[in-house]
């Protein structure tokens, strides 16, 4: 009996020690913490079921700053002005440490830290607004080349339609001709690997070990940027990261932009009138689009930005490296500080009638000076915004112009709802492109 009691007492003490180790008494200055009764797992099950709904319910219940304990980590969410400003400007939080564990299987941590700033500066210079004119003509030519392969009419999955044109065009303008495979089976194999990389980033970081042909395919990517960087042998790995960065967002943004336009007949009609006013009757062969042409087609750019607003990711993260005070709370070092663009973009303080697709709200943005609307955080904030944001917007802008100029689109399926498809490219929406050209009858 004494032995049994000793064992039970030891178990109780052990459980108490685990509890205090994983769930220490809450500091009164810390944000409210949502945990769970299972050690280490915490609130992982509740959060994982429906993360966006979980975030919003927690905000309503606990206020603009709250912590979620899950899988042994503390995730502190900020949802209002002061927290958003701290997320983008504070020196006490760090992006690199937040992504280190994920990225280091593609790029070793020490080389990632050593090269990141130089790569960012290079890309910011090469993809900034002052350099867009260098991309406009080759991008237009590439889009035409791959669009010509589509034929004059047919029925296609909208996502696949966009991918078949935008993916090879982007690869060629960023990395040069000859990198993108031309054989259909090679393209299919590469896109399958790339889609897996996009859907499961950590799996993708092991891709080089899964197929030498893929590594060989990417050996030339970014070489002109990496010649002077440490770790030259990792050029294919850096190239894969940039390829992922350039494609993982541009393709879904193009999808949602077209889907929203096609599902709003009055907007579609106005856009077609704008396109005709710039290029003449729709359906002519291979028009050339300049930056000046795009500036005259602002409604499409507004549609792109509004699509980005409504379909932004659930959360972005940085790591707290020193305790940081936000409002009345002190966020301890080690927490992952989280910001949800999805919910910031649905704050009526910034975006009245936030659930409605309203491209004309972007009239208020000073886009001529490259300024977005207040509260728009899809590309980050502060001094480290996405360096390729303006190139990505131009890509989508030009793709939409060319598609709508060349084809008449009819949606066959309703546009998917945002919550269900937030983290996935929608698979159900299809469109029937029917040519404007009178020589071919519309479907």
TrEMBL record:
Pfam families: p450. It catalyses: lanosterol + 3 reduced [NADPH--hemoprotein reductase] + 3 O2 = 4,4-dimethyl-5alpha-cholesta-8,14,24-trien-3beta-ol + formate + 3 oxidized [NADPH--hemoprotein reductase] + 4 H2O + 4 H(+); a 14alpha-formyl steroid + reduced [NADPH--hemoprotein reductase] + O2 = a Delta(14) steroid + formate + oxidized [NADPH--hemoprotein reductase] + H2O + 2 H(+); a 14alpha-methyl steroid + reduced [NADPH--hemoprotein reductase] + O2 = a 14alpha-hydroxymethyl steroid + oxidized [NADPH--hemoprotein reductase] + H2O + H(+); a 14alpha-methyl steroid + 3 reduced [NADPH--hemoprotein reductase] + 3 O2 = a Delta(14) steroid + formate + 3 oxidized [NADPH--hemoprotein reductase] + 4 H2O + 4 H(+). Its EC number is 1.14.14.154. Keywords: Cholesterol metabolism, Heme, Iron, Lipid metabolism, Metal-binding, Monooxygenase, Oxidoreductase, Signal, Steroid metabolism, Sterol metabolism. Its cofactor is heme. One of its GO terms (molecular function) is oxysterol 7-alpha-hydroxylase activity. Heme binds at residue 386. Pathway: Steroid biosynthesis; zymosterol biosynthesis; zymosterol from lanosterol: step 1/6. One of its GO terms (biological process) is cholesterol metabolic process. InterPro entries: CYP450_sterol_14alpha_dmase, Cyt_P450, Cyt_P450_CS, Cyt_P450_E_grp-IV, Cyt_P450_sf. Residues 1-21 form the signal peptide. PANTHER family: 24-HYDROXYCHOLESTEROL 7-ALPHA-HYDROXYLASE (PTHR24304:SF2), CYTOCHROME P450 FAMILY 7 (PTHR24304). Belongs to the cytochrome P450 family. This is Lanosterol 14-alpha demethylase. It comes from Chelydra serpentina.
